[in-house]
Amino acid sequence: MATAQFRLAQLARPGVAPDAPARLTAPKATIPLADKRQLLLGIHERYGTLVLLRIGQAIEEVRHEPALNALLRTQSPLDLVERWRRLERYVHSRHRCILEEAGDRRVVVRHISLTPGASPHATEDVLVMGVMIALLEASGCDGLRAAFGDSGDPVYVGGKFHESGVRVIRDTGIWRFDWTSYDPALNRREPANRQGTNLFQEQTSLPPVANACSAIIGGDVAYRWNVSTLAARLNVSVRTLQRRLGEVPVKFQEIVRAVQLREASRLLLDTGHDLTEIGFCCGFSDYSHFSREFKKHTNLSPSEFRRKFAVTTPHYRSSSPS
After folding, report:
1. Does 38 share its domain with 132?
2. Which residue range(s) make up the domain with 9?
3. 77 with 139: CB under 8 angstroms?
4. Potential cystine with 101: which of 108, 128, 200, 322 (Cβ 3.0-4.6 Å)?
5. pLDDT score at 190
6. pTM for this one?
């Protein structure tokens, strides 16, 4: 999963890591932790902190990645941070982002290790902060300003990185992000594509309220939908939506699950994306959850489903769990 694992060879622009081993530059290669740290240290020693931060800007080069677009379908900067945290849990990352402070125009994030007595290496902190800068700006944050810890000088402001912000860094694991405004119209995600092969068809025989819910959920499958947020999108009260849903033959969670499986089937049949990445994009908590639910409804694992029903070979197919 390129976005989750930070396959540095895919994110780092050509020439940044010319000495990287071949196993790190193979398409969709998963980078072992020790190799990742060695590569980061080499980049830092050769080019400095700002280059590590700028690596995140290369998300523009992988906009086709479904996990990236799942992150950018955010409804607010805080929602983006929460999606990132869910991605970390999904891939069982050793490192996690903790939300220390949240406001209308500011978030403070701490980067930690789940290993007792350990901390992420400073270069890992810098890399992930750079990706967060790129994601926040791409999601629609205008006037974004970023700084490490309690440093007075920003490392990023006005669309530019600043050397003064990295001269003295007391704590690379604390990041402060501020923005002047948030405009979803500035979001640079790719438009959703709902066309293509699909063996989980829309249940048009359901009452209009169920189909309305299905349509909204389908526009952002990775989001953690509940009745309250859905009612707000439908411009009705929670009580009204609950009453109307109580009149249909399916439960709310069954509507959500049907939409998730429908989108998963489309991605399985029409793309060659990793199975783990598809599970994240469709809102499942981890790959085991995705595989279990998919098999429960189809009697086939995701990989078996792809092999059995894909009419044509996707443009790219990677090795994925069964």
Report:
1. yes
2. 2-186
3. yes
4. 108
5. 56
6. 0.79
Q: What is the DSSP letter of 39?
A: H
In a domain, 100, yes or no: yes
**Residues comprising the chain, all counted:** 322
3-state SS assignment for residue 45: helix
Please tell me the distance from the alpha carbon of residue 9 to that of residue 99, in angstroms, as a whole number: 29
Q: Is residue 268 a contact partner of residue 197, using CB atoms and an 8 Å limit?
A: no
**Chain mean position to CA 227:** 23
Burial class (CB in 10 A: 0-12, 13-18, 19+), 87: buried
Check whether residue 170 and residue 219 sit in a common domain: no
| Mean pLDDT for back-to-back runs of 10 residues, the chain (322 residues) | 41 45 47 77 89 87 79 90 92 92 95 92 93 93 91 87 84 94 74 48 64 91 92 92 88 92 91 90 93 93 89 47 42
Q: Which of 229, 264, 237 is nearest to 75 (CA)?
A: 229
| Residue 79 shares a structural domain with residue 182 | yes
pLDDT digits (tens, 9 = 90+) for 55-70: 888 887 777 778 888 8
* 165 and 17, same domain (yes or no): yes
Q: Is-contact 122 142, C-beta < 8 A?
A: no
Q: How far apart are CA 79 and CA 73, in angstroms?
A: 9
End-to-end CA distance of the chain: 16
Instruction: Supply the pLDDT for residue 311.
Output: 62
Identify whether the C-beta of residue 245 lies closer than 8 Å to the C-beta of residue 238: no
Residue 34's φ and ψ, nearest 5 degrees, are -60, -40
- The beta-carbon contacts of 159-164 under 8 Å, at least 24 apart in sequence, are 161/50, 161/53, 161/54, 163/50
